What we know:
Helices cover 39% and strands 14% of the residues. By secondary structure, it is α/β, with parallel strands linked by helices. The chain has a domain at 8-230: Amidase signature (AS) enzymes. It is globular. The chain starts with 7 loop residues before the first helix and ends with a helix.
Amino acid sequence: MDIKDLTIKKVQEGLKGKEFSAKELTDEYLKRIREKDGDIGAYLSVFEERALKAAGDIDERNAAGESLPPLAGVPVALKDNLLIEGAVATSASKILEHYVASYDSTAVRKIEEAGAVVLGKTNMDEFAMGASTENSGFHPTKNPHDPERVPGGSSGGSAAAVAGGMALGAFGSDTGGSIRQPAAFCGIVGFKPTYGAVSRSGLMAMSSSLDQIGPFARTVADAELLFDAIRGHDDLDSTSLDLPELEPLKKEDLRGLRIGLPKEYFGDGVSAAVAKGVEEAVEKLKRLGVDFKDISLPHAKYGISTYYIVMPAEVSSNLARFDGVRYPGLPEVEKNAETLRDLYFKTRGEGFGAEVRRRILLGTFVLSAGYYDAYYAKAQKVRRLIGQDFDNAWGGVDIIMTPVTPTPAFKFGEKTDDPLSMYLADIFTVSANLSGVPALSMPVKPYPLGGKELPVGFQLMGPRLSDKKLLHIGKFYEEE
């Protein structure tokens, strides 16, 4: 079975036409994982038995003539910070190496109710803290386009699984760019929904006011189907909401659509390959009748500074629960601890990696007495100004377009000794999280660099709750 051109629609047609069974499709993806993942390292765990059983259930329903759900038989992968009842959930951290989830996250429940077949859990930066998947507590993940380069992060495993043909779709979490940046590095589609559009119940929290679950796919049409399966209000997440049901965008609606190009995103630091890629995307959209307008988001330059105060503050609070008492972590360390204080220090010192410890310390500092007003309170005020910039922009444009990253994928070790340069990889993505707006990362054709053809992506952002409009625009671009 040739799976390189498969889409979700083709899977549905193939199952209904009895061209293949869900079990045969699942077997093919499991075979790909066995053959390729030793070199890529996209997965932390593979659920072969569970996946084949789920596929068998779909085949039984299909044979009985039942109407199949929208993702029936679609092989997907899940980032390892999404809980699945009875499965190990590590968030790529040694401190949770032995933790088995006691319930399903809402997103996982919806994915399985929609008929998707979960192949396994994917690698990530530990507790979603990183932009390269080099911070995993277990192993790095390689970029399928060039194994000497990173796949991005923190959802690098999910992106590499889709780009490497080891899953048809995947899910990740995006706190400051962790879906969009790896999607751009790996040459696939990544979508961060409006904050609240997808329930965070059962997602291991990193930064609760920024985290959002979203899909990876090879096409925007597939990303939309994956998103539709998980979106909606959930009583278990008080921040969740329902999106308004809008009339589908028609191709003729693109004529006169106004897209803003913020000058702050196109200055120094953007590589020639990325600039050329975005220019090519602009020209293609112009051929569809879209109008472009230069705009300004004046507080965008403070996005990284604001993000790296707000996010670590929430990290220091959320990760306080991992102390060696309430979650099984490091049995040998816990056994040898003589006092409770000793247990805390040894468990957290040995269980957390360097980047996680760094962010906990930063967050504790900015929340401490004497520094709260100087840093955290001020960052929240700037966050509001960044949101106001977007609100003001929507008065003159419908959508905003930017690069996703300043450069294509960088090499392993290139930024690990300089945390600030690593943080700057998120410079074009963090503002969407700070303001809660939806954002879509789409690939343009790869560009030659260092003897390889590396993917380049561009980003579309829209007003809150405009998720479906963004995806429709993306689909028309893709068709063009």
